[in-house]
Amino acid sequence: MGGVNDSIFSADYADRRARVPRGIPLVVAMEGLSDAGGVVSQLEEHLWAHCEPEELVRFNADLLVDYRARRPLITFDGDHLVDYAPEELVLALARDELGAPFLVLSGYEPDFKWDHFIDTVLLLVHEFEVSVTVWSHAFPMPVPHTRPTVATVSGSRDDLIDARSVWRPMTRISASASHVLEYRLHSLGEEVAGFAYLIPHYLANADYPDALLAALDGIMAATGLILPAGGLRDASREFRAKLDEQVGSSDESQEMVRTLEERYDAYMEDRGAQSPLIREDGTIPTADQIASELERFLAERQGRKEEDPGEGPF
């Protein structure tokens, strides 16, 4: 691939690139400036655990990481050192629950050489003819856990912005590498969507399952992928039950949540931002349930076409 400094890549990238289909989505789960509720870290772990990722590119940490500011971990075992765990930033080829391929860029946010790194990602987007790039992050806000997790949506997808972006501030913020990547993609006319999730401020330092469910839902809406979420529904219910128990034990906490609910409901009135992929109880249907609904829908459409041969394709 002309113009790319090969030192930023793993050595065998040239052999792996041929296995990547063209025209597939890119999901970015790159840890950066803000990760309230552990949205990005949970998303990265979830995709690597459930989507069968195959490493394509390992970026050179020696070029991109400030080791003194972000020291990697190592274990001292009695009299010797083991389990050295350096920072990783990897592009991988993954598959959703129905086998559809997509790319995942995950790991640390570079400390150095942002322009070099982003230029490299843009070349990869061009080479693989990426259909849409989607990324997520989150920040703490005075919102209640008893209401759906909502987002500010940015990028080139007006459909997603109109349907899902419930808060559209005009403000200057500290940029992350993902922000700059979106900015460059949008400037080049590429399809890109960024989801900034609003997380209850009192859960900012917790791994919040509802936030991960919302992030998966946003990715599915932007890409058409069907991502696994079965175990997360149980985790969400368990987390909510424990949290409600804690809130219920404190009059002060109950009053705080009631106040947040009133403000949230007043702000959200008439906005209708709930995702069609999330049921009324906050759960996401499984891939089998979605596939069953699709089969039923297609069968009904086929029946109508047989009754009325003049019906168009839509």
Please describe what this structure looks like.
The chain starts with 12 loop residues before the first helix and ends in a 7-residue tail after the last helix. α2 (39-50) crosses α7 and α4 (114-127) crosses α6 (177-187). The chain is built from ten helices and nine strands. It is 40% helix and 18% strand. It has one domain (6-229): Rossmann fold, CATH 3.40.50. The protein is an alpha/beta fold.
Secondary structure elements and their pairing?
Blueprint: H1 13-16, E1 26-30, H2 39-50, E2 54-58, H3 61-64, E3 73-77, E4 80-85, E5 89-95, E6 101-107, H4 114-127, E7 133-141, E8 151-155, H5 158-164, H6 177-187, E9 192-200, H7 209-223, H8 230-248, H9 251-268, H10 287-307
Parallel strand pairs: 1-6, 1-7, 7-9
Antiparallel strand pairs: 2-5, 3-4, 5-6, 8-9
Helix pairs in contact: 2-7, 4-6, 7-8
* Shape call: globular
CATH third-level topology: Rossmann fold
The topology string of helices and strands comes to HEHEHEEEEHEEHHEHHHH
| Helix percent band | 25-40%
What amount of the residues lies in strands? 15-25%
CATH architecture: 3-Layer(aba) Sandwich
Strand order in space, largest sheet: 2-5-6-1-7-9-8
> Which spans have pLDDT < 50 for at least 5 consecutive residues?
1-6, 272-278, 280-287, 309-314
Mean pLDDT: 85
Counting helices, strands and paired strands, the structural category is alpha/beta
Q: Sketch the major β-sheet.
A: 7 strands, mixed
Work out the number of β strands. Answer: 9
